[in-house]
Amino acid sequence: MGEKILAGPELIKITHDKIRVIRERMKAAQDWQKSDADKQKRPIEFSVGDMVMLKVSPWKGVLIFGKQGKLSPRFAFKILERVGNQAYLLELPEELIGIHDVFHVGYLRKCLGKHNETVPLAEVKLDKRLRYIEEPKAILNERTMNLQNKIVDLVLVKWNHH
């Protein structure tokens, strides 16, 4: 019959070519993902005197408000100065004296509402464990949505202080 060659030079060349093609395609995919992510990025900048909303979830160790994520409460504060490239010094009231007053831009959002509509911190109710208490005021709208295998009831609630 003849001698079998398991790893001939042709097999090695084919393998190297396939590896090169795989690397090129992975590089193209990574470049596409990076360019797509860069399009969605936008620099967040504020100027001194702007009113910003501060997300309270970073206060978890100091004040536990009992809400996290999408429904976490936010409070409006004035920017006093810019500290570095991505941090701002906020004007905090005396009730929050134990909290450091410099925050990263990731915790801040531009306050689009009127400044006098913000809730004073004196009106914020906390229970014994320092959790934020929010009370519903009225139900504005109700509806039912049919999803694939579920029926979901949606309720629009007007909350106190919102």
Report on this model:
This protein is α+β, with helices and mostly antiparallel strands and 162 residues long. The protein has a domain of 83 residues. Helices cover 20% and strands 31% of the residues. The chain contains 1 helix and 9 strands, in the order αβββββββββ. The strands form 3 sheets. A 5-stranded antiparallel beta sheet has the order 4-3-2-1-5, with no helix packed on it. A hairpin with a 3-residue loop joins strand 2 and strand 3. It is elongated and about 90 Å long. About 6% of the residues have low confidence.
Return Rg in Å. 27 Å
Q: Report how far the terminal alpha carbons are from each other.
A: 87 Å
* Overall geometric form: elongated
Task: Please tally the β strands and state the result.
Answer: 9
Unreliable spans: 61-69
Topology pattern, helix = H, strand = E: HEEEEEEEEE
Mean pLDDT across every amino acid position: 79
Percent helix? 10-25%
Strands side by side in the biggest sheet: 4-3-2-1-5
User: How much of the sequence is in beta strands?
Assistant: 25-35%
The biggest beta sheet is recorded as: 5 strands, antiparallel
**What structural class do helix, strand and pairing data support?**
alpha+beta
Number of helices: 1
